[in-house]
Amino acid sequence: MKIFNSYSNQLEEFTSLKENQVNMYVCGPTVYNYIHIGNARPVVFFDTVRRFFEARGYQVTFVSNFTDVDDKIIQKALDENLSELEVSSKYIQAFLIDIEGLNCKTDYLKPKVTEYMDFIIGFIQDLIDKNYAYNVDGDVYFRVSKIDDYGRLSNRNIDDLISGSRIDINPKKESPLDFTLWKQTEVGINFSSPFSQGRPGWHTECVSMIDDIFKGQIDIHGGGMDLQFPHHENEIAQAKALHNHSIAKYWMHNGRLSFKEEKMSKSIGNVVLVKDVEEKLALRFFLLSTHYRSPLNYDEEVFAMYVKEWQKLENAYKTLFYKLDLVKELDLNIEIKDIEIKNEINNFDLAMEDDFNTANAITALQSLLRLINSNLRKKLVFTKLNELLKALNYMVDILGLKVEVTPLTDEDRSVYESWQKARNDKDFSLADDLREKLTRRGML
RNA sequence: GGACCCUUAGCCAAGCGGUAAGGCACGGGACUGCAACUCCCCCACCGCCGGUUCAAAUCCGGCAGGGUCCUCCA
After folding, report:
1. How far apart are CA A412 and CA A326, in angstroms?
2. Mapping DSSP to helix (H, G, I), strand (E, B) and coil, where does residue A36 land?
3. Domain end residue (candidates: A220, A254, A288)
4. Which of A95, A166, A325, A429 is the most exposed place for a label (fewest CB within 10 A)?
5. ipTM value of the model?
6. Nearest nucleotide (C1') to the CA of residue A29?
């Protein structure tokens, strides 16, 4: 399996640090609002990565944090006259509902900054003790100059960064490149520490959590391309300072999602919230339709195409499943022997192994759908149909596009028979009633 | 000012030196009580100009258009 490693800037063969085990961490949301579809891209993508590793038999430990200490949360709390904790827990709930709708697994570790304060403070103290950080009037900064290959992950050199500076220089910092580990403040939620009353900087939370949870280097650290600099660069700097490693063996970054070629942002007013999207799994389909490192552009017409794609998948899945269940021929444990079907699975796997090329994996899925549909209109061969269903389940589980079906009851079966009979008898008004019933049941 | 990326048919999108996958839409067939679903066929010389090569969408250079980032926040 090949993964594009942002740290080395090239495609690398994947080998896990521990056999059959994948430890991965993905930067999670700052919980001060509902998430938009751009926020959903990394969530859906890395959920798919996880699913693929699991399908490959790896034991995956998946961690993604909630940033629940942050200026925006404080602002929101002030605006709505709530506590920061009330704000963050509201949006954590909302986040989990949203991603569940996108069929993302939610059984992962979800550390929160508020629950990690002691550890974060200890982590910062270690940096100070090792002389990688310094305290100026209660603010603690990281001394970037002590890290020799700072900029490696995001591919930039320090001189460019300094000369390219457009922001007023903070006179407290030794160097404009230094970043905040702890900020002294009594505004909003704050904590006591040996440095001052205040709160931690954003860049230090993920690395602290990884340190505590995994106790060492992890396999994969993921997040949006926009986090590469400075956030991930700064995380690496801290890990290098304390542990002399780059946190993760593989760094993965997904491309941004834009809206009609524009950045999706609240100031432009073009935000599409996940909770407002009706066809959630069509959204998942859409998000996986382009390779994860490429930019992805959303607009209603393009999305409508994927709604159609999703429905096509749904139709084929249901028809196949119910055709088999109708005659009690479902066999979910069948072994796939058919060459043609094996071939599609192989194409699917090759695509996923190629740096998670979901676009090509979807092509294999579509090809399988064509095979399914054409077999459904031929004389039914149950072994073949069961093999097709098994293959479909395999792909759809990995992509997280699972279609909901419920096993039929004998009553369902008799309604179906009556429908067939009515059609044969040319009793079309009865047939239409029954068809309506079957459609509502999801069988047609 | 600096760093970097993208440009493939009406639309979405693979491709990474060997002669353009797939999907949607369109058009033509088929299936069908009506409808939906579905099936088959058809549909591009890859932004422009030059270069390298036996061979380029794929490599190099220039031009045009679009986008991202640059020690503030995520």
Report:
1. 8
2. strand
3. A254
4. A166
5. 0.93
6. B74
